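Contributing new records

If you add data, match the layout below exactly. Sequence lines come first and carry their own label; structure lines follow with theirs. Keep one chain per record. Anything else will be rejected by the validation script.
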Amino acid sequence: NDELRLQLVQDSGLTPQNLPKLVENNPLVAYECLLILLQNSPEPLKNEFLSALVGMDMTLHTMEVVNRLATYNVNGGGGSDDQNEPILHPEYVNLFITSCIASCENIPDRHGQNRLVRLVCVFIQSLLRNNIVHVQDIYF
């Protein structure tokens, strides 16, 4: 079944280069595709997709996909249990948080910046609440 799902994602033409379009147009499908790829692909391919995800412009959809991946555990499925290995490695989560903060700093429009800061705060609160990140990891 996993092989069939992986083959379907591979046949769809999804690449790290066109991942941003899928995330913005259909974050739930992007999440499911990334989940399949991260569970069944070799490390170099996983890293390409994760780098593409972390390097995307920060939007609500991007944060939604990263949050879903961060709260999914390899052994136990969705939800956060410290005994399960996370599918999204902490360094990618930390890189994404850093990217989110940088995006907030670079918004010239004050209203847009305030909106984005609130969104990032909710995102980080979710990660903290689910024990995905710890305060000492993100406090710089």
